[in-house]
Design goal:
It comes from Aromatoleum diolicum. InterPro entries: AraC_XylS_family_regulators, Homeodomain-like_sf, HTH_AraC, HTH_AraC-typ_CS, Tscrpt_reg_AraC-type_HTH. Keywords: DNA-binding, Transcription, Transcription regulation. The chain has 306 residues and is α+β, with helices and mostly antiparallel strands. The protein has two domains: 185 residues, Jelly Rolls, CATH 2.60.120; 111 residues, Homeodomain-like (Arc Repressor Mutant, subunit A, Orthogonal Bundle). Helices cover 42% and strands 20% of the residues. The strands form two sheets. The protein has a seven-stranded mixed beta sheet with strand order 10-7-4-9-2-1-11. A four-stranded antiparallel beta sheet has the order 3-8-5-6. A hairpin with a 2-residue loop joins strand 5 and strand 6.
Length: 306
């Protein structure tokens, strides 16, 4: 559960400060995600088959669709995190070095020491989220550009990656690619593995094995993450009631939706809606890149990875 939350939501993705009191179950997002510990004790983050320590000096870097969970020891004090989600469509506009940003190995390691060039950016982003009543979209995007670029310069080798290997890309099995397309177009509809296997023209066991091999998620987990992603967007960007959203996403009641949302994010949908500020862009992405380069200098310059 969480007692503290503020979210800035925009075209770049979302930046949030959240205070967690307990562990968060398995989750995966289509965004690139960065986790920084702001306050409280160190904690463990499980990423696929490995466990990584999140401390004051380390950052957790999660590639698109990387399955992970946040583990807080029982009776441990609350932990405050800065969590930054970067939208792939926005990130690709920064330059060709981010063309493969949805590759499962875009960031070569899930954890690493925060580069000296990024430390100031993290502190400034925390201050903006915590204290600015009306944050500037320009400054927010400048920080997102600079921080993403600084981390990618240290922990990504885009020239060695193929965009074909992204989830649902050309390198993905064509049968699974077809199923993923159908699932994305029918978020909220009941998931019947036998029907998906039939669509892929496979037996249920073969389909289940191949789906998890290609996505690192089970069909149900993938469907749930699509529902969570859609829920976050609709809670943030529409005035639809939580009941309307929950029914549209296939939940039998708002209570079931609330339990699902809290299990994955640590907060209720109503708390999330009260805490989110939607930031409209003030300038085209290319201008944000140019202004970020001017403001933060060579260490975060977009193009350094190309």
């Amino acid at each position: 559960m969480s007692n503290g939350l503020r979210v800035l939501h925009g075209e770049f993705g979302r930046a949030m400060l959240i205070t967690l009191e307990s562990s968060i179950t398995l989750q995966a997002y289509r965004t690139c995600q960065f986790l920084f510990r702001v306050d409280g004790p160190d904690m463990e983050v499980s990423v696929r088959d490995g466990r990584h320590r999140l401390s004051d000096d380390n950052v957790i870097m999660l590639n698109a669709w990387a399955a992970h969970s946040l583990e807080i020891e029982e009776d441990a004090p609350p932990v405050t995190l800065l969590v930054l989600h970067i939208e792939p469509t926005w990130l690709r506009q920064l330059g060709r070095q981010f063309a493969a940003c949805m590759h499962p190995k875009f960031f070569s390691t899930p954890s690493g020491v925060i580069p000296a060039s990024a430390r100031m950016l993290v502190d400034e982003l925390v201050d903006m989220i915590a204290y600015e009543p009306t944050p500037s979209s320009t400054q927010l995007e400048q920080l997102a550009v600079a921080l993403t670029t600084a981390l990618a310069a240290e922990y990504s080798e885009p020239k060695r990656l193929s965009n074909f290997e992204t989830l649902g890309g050309v390198g993905c099995d064509a049968r699974i690619r077809k199923v993923l397309s159908v699932m994305r177009e029918s978020v909220g509809e009941p998931i019947v593995v036998e029907e998906l296997a039939k669509l892929a023209r496979m037996s249920r066991p073969h389909f289940f094995h191949l789906f998890k091999q290609e996505t690192q998620l089970t069909p149900m987990a993938y469907a749930n993450m699509m529902r969570l992603d859609t829920a976050i967007k609709e809670i943030s960007e529409t005035s639809d009631s939580l009941l309307e959203i929950s029914l549209r996403l296939g939940f039998e009641s708002q209570g079931n939706f609330t339990r699902f949302f809290r299990m994955h994010l640590g907060v209720s949908p109503s708390q999330y809606r009260r805490s989110v500020t939607v930031i409209a862009p003030e300038q085209p992405i290319r201008e944000a890149v140019a202004s970020s380069n001017r403001r933060f200098g060579e260490y975060s310059r977009v193009g350094a990875l190309a």
